[in-house]
Each structure stands twice: as structure tokens, then as C-alpha cells.
Amino acid sequence: MRVKYLVSMILSFLVTLGLIAPVYAAPKQVDTNVTKFSFLNKDKVEANKIYHSDDFYLDIDWDASSSGTNLQEGDYFDITLPDQMEFP
User: Fold this and answer.
1) DSSP H or E run through 37
2) With the CA atoms of 25, 28, 31 and 33 taken in that order, what torsion angle do they form, in degrees rounded to the nearest 10?
């Protein structure tokens, strides 16, 4: 009788722990389509020219809807920048 009680308590604890513990999925690379890629100056206005000494922002819109609802926090994608751009 005591063993049955102990087993039921352990199982109850494990079920409770499983309900409150967050589910962790490893980050994965997802397929995306870049829909907009532009350069912004320091005032966040689209820039026509950027010089090597200029500070600038990259304005990128992207669409990952092809991944459906399978996106999770930590998922990522890579963007290949033009060869003319040099980054430190």
C-alpha cells in the first residue's frame, strides 16, 4: 500500500512538472523572402548615396510565411550582402 502511494506521488509530481516546465525547441534556420532592402541615413530617411565614412541603417522587410506557424523564438535566417559592402 505504501509503495502504491509513493509511486502515485512521484507520478503526480512528474506530471505537474511537465505541465509547468517550458517546452524548448532548438533554434533553426527558416526560409524567408526579402521583400524590401534599402539604406537609411542617420535621420532614418532613405539614402541615395552612402560614403565609406557614413553611418547608416539597413531597412529590411522580410516574409517567412512559407514556414507557416512553425516559427519559434530564436529561429533565424541569413542574408548575403552585396560584395561592394565591407563590414568590420
Assistant:
1) strand 33-40
2) 90
